[in-house]
Amino acid sequence: MRSNFNFFSDQKFRSLFYQVLVVGLFALGIYYLTITTAYNLEKRNIATGWSFLNNPAGFDISFSPFLDFKSTDTHLKVYYVGVLNTLLVSFTGCIAATFLGFIVGIIRLSNNWLLSRTAYVYVEFCRNVPLILQIILWYSILLLMPRIKQAIELVNGFFITNRGLYSPRPIYESGFSIVFFVFIVGIIASIWISKWAKKRQERTGQRYPVLWTSLGLIILLPLIIFFLLGSPMTFEYPVLKGFNFKGGMVIRPEFIAMFLALSIYTGAFISETVRSGILSVTKGQREASAALGLKPTWIMRLIIIPQALRVIIPPLTSQYLNLTKNSSLGIAVGYADLVHGFGGISLNQTGQAIECMVITMATYLCISLIISFFMNIYNRSIQFKEK
Amino acid sequence: MKKLLSIVAVSVFALSANAGTLDDVKNRGFLKCGVTTGLAGFAAPDDSGNWTGLDVDMCRAVAAAVFGDSSKVEFTTTTGKSRFPTLASGEIDMLARNTTWTLSRDVNLGFEFVGVNFYDGQGFMVPTSLGVSSATELDGATVCIQTGTTTELNLADFFRANNIGYEALPIETNDEARENLFAGRCDVFTTDASGLSSTRAQSDNPNKWVVLPEIISKEPLGPLVRHGDHQWGDVVRWSLNTMIIAEEFGLTQANVDDNMNSNIPEVLRILGVEGGYGEMLELSNDFAYNIIKQIGNYSESYERNVGPDTPLAIGRGLNALWTDGGILYAPPFR
Ligand SMILES: N[C@@H](CCC(=O)N[C@@H](CS)C(=O)NCC(=O)O)C(=O)O
After folding, report:
1. Which among B138, B168, B179 is the nearest to A60, CB-wise?
2. Residue B16 is nearest to which of A39, A59, A349, comparing CB atoms?
């Protein structure tokens, strides 16, 4: 009898075949795109290559809190400044959004009608108004702050203007490093103590005032040392000289607008994640812990949140990714993020559109992958561990 | 596999081998022209939504040359940043957007500037109340600039050369820059002097603003096309030249019809009565007549959009004809 064997009826072969096919088509597509692009660029006399990265930028970037940037620096440095500015607003934004999200998520579940309604209105408003409008709204409000010459002094050395919030800048003198050292030691000691306290509690049931000891070690002790050493720190105050304040520190309205808009917008999404996470913990758990006589705050902290976190973390990760990617809207208010500086000004001044876009996109990809990586590690660490 | 590769190669070729721009424009039935997002006097929609301005007239002149109808234009707004990719990608046929002719744009970006329709230079504008009288007094000032422009490069050069510090606030469009300036977020606005006049004219009280005397750069602004399509480049170049030559010969919208049997030979050549100059450009022989009839000569366009009687009130200066003390000059029509 003739064998009826057909390759396609073999499931293993079939799946392998389709996978190879898909990968092959994908590779072909990429190849096609690359040669078409190269051909067209050549035909339009558009120069390509990476050497422009080492050419002087020729323009200034004023918002560069971490690196000193001059117009004679290279486009590569423009890139670094952009990455740092993107990371700055993303990182601070994620932290603020998380706090806001957890607080609002919990408030929405509170029995207080007014509180939960207010939280509801906030969430619905912020989730449904396009982010770019919120950024522009915040920026417009900040521009209404007093002009530089009419700056309002809040307390000694703190000024509000529409060019930013100015504050005194601490200047560390010799001896401050000791204070800093004590501070670090305090943190390490606190971590150790909290571990020890936990073990002891598991063993003996006795509790230890971890919070107070930690505060004492991290804040009080360094403070005492600080004063014992005769306050080795002075302040440089901002003073209005000519067109602007000189000295001190400043937070620019472009940054504030981005920070507020990103964290408030994303915070609304996170609060929904938190709410659904908390609701996913069955009512029985709550009732059981109440029956054991736990205080409501303890129930939240010891029973509900640890279980809810398992549900919250995966969507929280994607909110972090969203926030990071949304920070690319900086150009709306002139915030010098990666897309505005390198992906915008450098691109335009050099005309190397493809190169700049490839680098910019690859960078966002890297940042996103790094965030995912760490969030996944965290996620795994809080998952339910079978004994 | 070989066959597959050749299919790929052929389709690549088909994708990129586009016909000449002039044929594309004719087949499409209208011209696609890139202009600013709004700069009164150069390109901005008027009260009834029609685009008007010096750069807009440049676009319309080309439409008049190609179609005999200056209304056959679709305007695309471009920012300082988006203008070059928009032109390079073929989304527009030409760009007339206060764009400075520079070496790198001409060569490295793969464009071709066909001429200059406004000789400009970069200036500074500050609130009168600041009491500043020279740009060298601007040490420590916050400066609003438009990104993706020659402006930001000149600015960095100027402050570096004078060894004074400043803080740059890079902004995408002229409108946003104006709002920031008016709100006091920056002390100074710097751009092409014509753009300053335009911005100043839009303030509720223009006297609150002074333009400082320093002009720190040469900004020859002109229309540009993609490099390599010389036929199309010629069409745009001679549309511009026609407007300048028409001014030299005193041909205006009003009198052009009376000049059809002028006794000046060059006028007869311009108006297509003698010679086949339009045909050389693959246009109709009355292309120049259509430009003059529908748009007018350079001076008419200038006076209508940016001249002393408009809110911008910019004198002719360098933009006067070479015979009137300016540097506007076009090669002969022959
Ligand atoms: N000429 C300079 C500057 C061009 C430019 O952006 N000019 C401003 C003001 S003069 C403008 O046209 N703004 C209109 C807009 O923002 O769309 C260049 O080509 O880079």
Report:
1. B168
2. A39
Can you read off the two tokens belonging to residue A204?
A: 């003996």
- Burial of residue A212 (CB within 10 Å: 0-12, 13-18, 19+) is exposed
Nearest CA to ligand 1 atom 7: B98
Tokens of B292: 């003059």
Is A71's CB within 8 Å of B157's CB?
Answer: yes
Q: Domain map of chain A by residue range?
A: 42-149+252-387
Distances (CA, A) of A105 to A110, A272, A274, A305: 9, 6, 5, 12
Q: Phi, psi at residue B166, to the nearest 5°?
A: -160, 170
Domain with CATH 3.40.190.10 in chain B: 2-119+220-324, 122-217
ipTM confidence? 0.81
Contact A58 B156 (CB under 8 A): yes
In whole angstroms, what is the distance from residue B319 CA to residue B116 CA?
Answer: 10
User: Which architecture, in CATH terms, is B2-119+220-324?
Assistant: 3-Layer(aba) Sandwich (3.40)
pLDDT of chain B along its 334 residues, tens only? 444 444 444 444 444 434 599 999 999 999 999 999 999 999 999 989 899 999 999 999 999 999 999 999 999 999 988 899 899 989 999 999 999 999 989 988 889 999 999 999 999 999 999 999 999 999 999 999 998 899 999 999 999 999 999 999 999 888 899 999 999 999 999 999 999 999 998 888 989 999 999 999 999 999 999 998 999 999 999 999 999 999 999 999 999 999 999 999 999 999 999 989 999 999 999 999 999 999 999 999 999 999 999 999 999 999 999 999 999 999 999 8
To the question of domain B122-217 being in CATH 3.40.190.10, the answer is yes
Instruction: Tell me if A39 and B141 make a contact (CB, 8 A cut-off).
Output: no
Q: What's the whole-model pTM score? A: 0.85
Ligand 1 mutation pick, B33, B35, B36, max ligand atoms within 8 A of CB: B36
Report the candidate in B103, B100, B93, B92 with the shortest Cα–Cα distance to residue B117. Answer: B100
Ligand 1 pocket list (CB less than 6 A): B 36-39, 79-80, 98-100, 146, 149-151, 173-174, 191-192, 195, 219, 221
For residue B79, the ligand 1 atom closest to its alpha carbon is 17
State in Å: Cα B218 to ligand 1 middle: 14
Class of domain A42-149+252-387: mainly alpha
Query: Are the beta carbons of A93 and A262 closer than 8 angstroms?
Result: yes
Q: Which of B108, B140, B156 sits opposite A60 (nearest CB)?
A: B156
Give me the phi and psi of A334, to 5 degrees please.
80, 25
Number of Cβ pairs < 8 A linking chain A and chain B: 121
Subunit contact B16:A241, Cβ cutoff 8 A: no
